[in-house]
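Both lines are retained for reference:
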Amino acid sequence: MARILAVDDEKEILEIIRKALEKDGHEVVLCKDGDSALKALSIPFQLILLDIMMPEMDGFELCVKIRNKTDCPIIFLTAKSSEPDIIKGLSIGADDYLKKPFGLGELRARVMAHMRREGRQKSNSFIRSGLVFYTDSKKVMYQQKNLLLTKSEYDICEYLAINHGITCSKERIFESVFGFNADSDSSAIVEHIKNIRKKGSAYGLNLVETVWGIGYRWAE
């Protein structure tokens, strides 16, 4: 199915992750610290599971370094579930987060959802509000400049752009983009949209509008 890198300083958690994901046919590479994880990136991975609270090099620092090497989905596994930690994780390039302690069923479902997103066969492009969406490479270009969106940010933009004129709740966006229902984590959409707006504003663009009390829609 996929080659997955799991990074955590607790050996027991790594073994639990490995056994759970191997049931779905994934190849799982385990690393207990940041240095060994960076060395492991000499081979390609389709997804990375990353703990935050690790000694020496924590997950935030490691995430930044990983993002310089690969654009595959990164899911934080973390007991640090406060809003500032979530905002920080998503702003530096993570795609998703899973709160510890987590159920193995949810872990497997979250991984499968991201793999479905990565495995979708997309082609062609379309234009919306002066932006060109390249659906095969998941890029958004404006006046021949790349907005440098993460994959999750791109997918949210694509979903809202395709459904322009429709106001979508954050729960609906989460379910449609990530592929399953997890209302408690739909708050991640709020942070992704903040990042999208920040990147758009660098080019004088307002990409997403808030409809108070309802959700979000593509800004025409």
Observations:
- The chain has a mean pLDDT of 88.
